[in-house]
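Please decode residue identities from the backbone states below.
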């Protein structure tokens, strides 16, 4: 949670505005991840591990497209991405940059970095770039 709220400070120069989705994301993502890690068993089969990692990246990208596209406010990292997009940086590049910075910061703080971590950092940006415009709520259709 501390990381999420700390990232919000980086929104100030980007003039991003928080919303309900911002607050919920900052409060709940870490908690839900901790619960899921305790519930979902770690498979010993490498193929299943790879499929779980890849499907997880796709699910995160779809989820990002849905909740950012709902206009309820992006999460802390997503707000950096959308703020950069408003300045002409494509979503795929902005999100990848944010994720790589988070990856390096986590590693410098002693976190574990593996193949799936790299796959997420470099894969989620292009996928969010793909899904966000396709899943966003359009005001004219409601």
């Amino acid at each position: 949670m501390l990381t999420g709220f700390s990232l919000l400070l980086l929104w100030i120069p980007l003039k991003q505005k928080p919303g309900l989705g911002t607050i919920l994301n900052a409060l709940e993502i870490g908690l839900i991840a901790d619960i899921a890690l305790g519930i979902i068993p770690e498979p010993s089969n490498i193929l299943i591990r790879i499929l779980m990692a890849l499907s997880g990246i796709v699910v995160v990208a779809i989820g990002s497209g849905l909740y950012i596209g709902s206009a309820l406010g992006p999460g802390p990292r997503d707000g950096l991405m959308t703020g950069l997009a408003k300045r002409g940086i494509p979503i795929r590049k902005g999100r990848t940059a944010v994720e790589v910075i988070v990856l390096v910061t986590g590693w410098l703080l002693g976190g574990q970095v593996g193949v799936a971590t790299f796959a997420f950092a470099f894969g989620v940006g292009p996928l969010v770039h793909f899904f966000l415009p396709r899943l966003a709520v359009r005001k004219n259709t409601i």
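Observation: The mean pLDDT is 88.
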